[in-house]
Amino acid sequence: MNNMSKLSTPGVTGNILSSDTYGAEKTENAPFGTALIRVAETNPHIVGLTADLGKYTDIHLFAERFPERFFQMGMAEQNLIGAASGLARTGFIPFATTYCVFATRRAYDFIAIGAALGQANVKIIAGLPGLTTGYGGTHQGIEDLALMRSIPNLTVIDPCDATELAQVIPVIAEHPGPVYMRLLRGQVPVTLDPAGYQFELGKAKLLCDGNDVAIISTGLMTARALKAVDQLAGQGIQAALLHVSTLKPFDVESIISLLRRVPRVVTAENHVITGGLASAVADAVTNGGIPVRMRRIGIPDVFCDSGSIPYLINRYQLDATSISAAALELVRS
Amino acid sequence: MNNAQTSEPQSKIRSLEHRALSLRRHVLRMAERVGQGYVGQGLGIADLLAVLYFDEMKYDAKNLKWSDRDRFVLSIGHYSIGLYAALAEAGVIEIDELDTYGADESRLEMSGSEITPGFEMTGGSLGHGLGQAVGMALGLRLDKRQARIFTLLSDGELQEGATWEAAMAAAHYSLDGLFAFIDCNNQQADGPPARVLNVEPVHQKWEAFGWDTQRIDGNNIGALVDAIDRAKTVNGKPHAIVLDTLMGKGVRAFEQREKNHFIRVDASEWSALREQLESGMTPSGDERIS
Question: I need a labelling partner for A88 at 20 to 30 A (CA). Which of A43, A143, A313, B223 fits?
Answer without folding.
Answer: A143
